[in-house]
Specification:
Elements lengths: L1 H10 L5 H22 L4 H17 L13 H4 L3
Helix pairs in contact: 1-2
């Protein structure tokens, strides 16, 4: 997630929504890969990852952190 935050900062405020979404999707895909063989993301881990990810989504100007209708993470996660 730290890499994702750094990538978003490097994009600058002028980055398009599509560019920001690509960085965010890459973050979740990395968790998908990590979880693939190991299956280590259980309920508590999933909730923590989703909470942190949604905070990043909100910080970069996408989605609503306070009351998301459908969290962005759910579009890409496989766990």
């Amino acid at each position: 997630m730290a890499d994702t935050v750094h990538e978003l900062i490097e994009l600058s405020k002028a980055a398009s929504e599509e560019e920001r979404l690509q960085v965010l999707e890459k973050c979740i895909e990395s968790f998908n890969s990590l979880n693939g063989d190991q299956d280590f993301i259980a309920t508590l881990e999933r909730e923590d990852i989703c909470d942190e990810f949604e905070a990043i989504v909100h910080a970069c100007g996408l989605g609503s952190h306070d009351s998301p209708d459908e969290p962005l993470v759910d579009e890409w996660r496989e766990w």
